[in-house]
């Protein structure tokens, strides 16, 4: 069932965290600090083994996923050594985190559909265990209940797909594909399974890091490993759900007043982008995005306390008022052109850039939008030639490095990824539509004439993002 049977290094990656979980469950209360350090050290050792195995791995996708799994686990458990010091629930976290690491390794390295489903279900059980760390809190119990319900629906769909797959009827292929898509959407908190993710914020910060940096990526991993989106109904569902979740999550992220709540909806939006790339057959973009998002989001959650303090300081650093309309247009144009020029330079300077590959170009579009937003914010505070020069000095090396990394990772993953069944014209039509929607939202946000619509949208977004323990809106 698993490559680990014939691979001692991979077998070690599966067994070692499981042993730590058993140790934490048995003697964790007597030696909590030692057990916490053992969990962090085991995950760090697993990360070193995963890095060492990258050049010689037979399955490049599994090797890349193991890098993410053990990297995030090592970071979160290392952080938890001090974060949960003196907390009676520290051994519970070490046990759950180690079980989650083992289950994720099984899922990433599975070579059969049954093995993948076993790892998938085990990941969900381990996450629910972690979310129950502070089960005496009503909010924590509500989060566990919502998560368990969404996961039960998704896991039921996946196991139904496994059963139908083993019947061997080709006529059932579209049904199997849709069932797998339901499982993927539920695990990645996509519409209509989006309510469980923001309900998990009562969990300790290291649990949030493991969840948002790792578990929610499972939907993309499932779709890539099973490559079921050659059927139009399945691809259409993924594209529609991903697009809707990306827009919904982005809007609610902007109105949330709390850091962790904003990060939760940011994850939903990022997973929407990942699902959209899967639906379009941009497999390399999906894998690169989920790995990059995993490390990035783990860092954000673990530094959320610092972010709160920094946000309080920066509230006094408002952008200069009184900019004339022509100057605002100049700033907006410059903010759009500088990242675009930097990325174009990166494509020229990196000799291995794969020209014309839609997956890599989609990632560049994503980077351009992100860079433009960051540059816009910088130039509003530094609306001078010196500010533009400073932005260029940061953007150019960052863009070259970004293009180089995308090129290298795409080439590494290429042998393990399925072929795209979507035409390039469809890909570019969807990307153009997404950019048009983003442009319209930006124009709406910046328009004084649309103040009433902005307030209405803000009110509805705040209401949509408010969860009640009973699950009923009031």
UniProtKB/TrEMBL annotation:
Compartments in which it is found: Endomembrane system; Membrane
Membrane topology: Multi-pass membrane protein
Chain segments annotated as transmembrane: 6-27, 34-55, 61-85, 92-110, 116-134, 146-165, 209-228, 234-255, 262-284, 329-349, 361-379, 391-413, 425-444
GO molecular function terms attached to this record: NADH dehydrogenase (ubiquinone) activity; NADH dehydrogenase activity
Signal sequence bounds: none
Alphabetic keyword roster: Membrane, Transmembrane, Transmembrane helix
Protein's UniProt name: NADH:quinone oxidoreductase/Mrp antiporter transmembrane domain-containing protein
């Amino acid at each position: 069932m698993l490559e680990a049977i014939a691979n001692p290094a991979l077998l070690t990656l599966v067994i070692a965290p499981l042993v730590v979980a058993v140790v934490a469950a048995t003697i964790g209360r007597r030696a909590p600090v030692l057990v916490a350090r053992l969990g962090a050290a085991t995950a760090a050792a697993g990360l070193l083994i995963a890095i060492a195995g990258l050049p010689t791995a037979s399955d490049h996708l599994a090797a890349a996923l193991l890098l993410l799994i053990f990297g995030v686990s090592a970071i979160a458990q290392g952080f938890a050594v001090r974060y949960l010091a003196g907390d009676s629930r520290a051994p519970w976290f070490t046990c759950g985190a180690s079980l989650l690491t083992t289950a994720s390794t099984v899922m990433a390295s599975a070579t059969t559909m049954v093995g993948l489903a076993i790892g998938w279900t085990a990941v969900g059980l381990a996450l629910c265990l972690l979310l129950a760390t502070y089960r005496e809190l009503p909010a924590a119990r509500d989060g566990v209940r919502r998560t368990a319900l969404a996961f039960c629906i998704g896991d039921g769909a996946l196991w139904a797909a496994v059963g139908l797959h083993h019947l061997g009827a080709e006529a059932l292929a579209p049904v199997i594909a849709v069932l797998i898509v339901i499982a993927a959407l539920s695990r990645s908190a996509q519409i209509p399974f989006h309510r469980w993710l923001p309900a998990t914020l009562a969990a300790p910060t290291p649990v949030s890091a493991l969840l948002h940096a790792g578990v929610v990526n499972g939907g993309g991993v499932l779709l890539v490993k099973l490559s079921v989106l050659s059927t139009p109904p399945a691809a259409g569902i993924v594209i529609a759900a991903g697009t809707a979740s990306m827009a919904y999550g982005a809007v609610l992220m902007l109105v949330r007043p709390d850091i962790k709540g904003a990060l939760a909806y940011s994850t939903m939006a990022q997973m929407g982008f990942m699902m959209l790339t899967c639906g379009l057959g941009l497999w390399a973009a999906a894998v690169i995005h989920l790995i990059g998002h995993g490390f990035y989001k783990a860092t954000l959650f673990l530094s959320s306390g610092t972010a709160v303090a920094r946000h309080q300081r920066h509230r006094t650093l408002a952008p200069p008022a009184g900019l004339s309309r022509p100057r605002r247009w100049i700033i907006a144009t410059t903010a759009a052109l500088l990242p675009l020029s930097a990325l174009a330079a990166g494509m020229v300077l990196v000799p291995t850039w794969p020209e014309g590959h839609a997956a890599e170009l989609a990632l560049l579009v994503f980077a351009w939008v992100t860079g433009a937003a960051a540059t816009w914010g910088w130039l509003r505070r530094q609306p001078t030639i010196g500010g533009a020069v400073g932005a260029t000095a940061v953007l150019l090396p960052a863009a070259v490095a970004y293009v180089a990394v995308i090129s290298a990772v795409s080439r590494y993953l290429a042998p393990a990824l399925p072929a795209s069944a979507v035409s390039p014209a469809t890909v570019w039509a969807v990307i153009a539509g997404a950019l048009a929607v983003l442009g319209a939202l930006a124009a709406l946000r910046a328009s004084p004439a649309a103040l009433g619509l902005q307030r209405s949208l803000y009110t509805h977004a705040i209401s949509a993002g408010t969860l009640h323990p009973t699950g009923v809106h009031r």
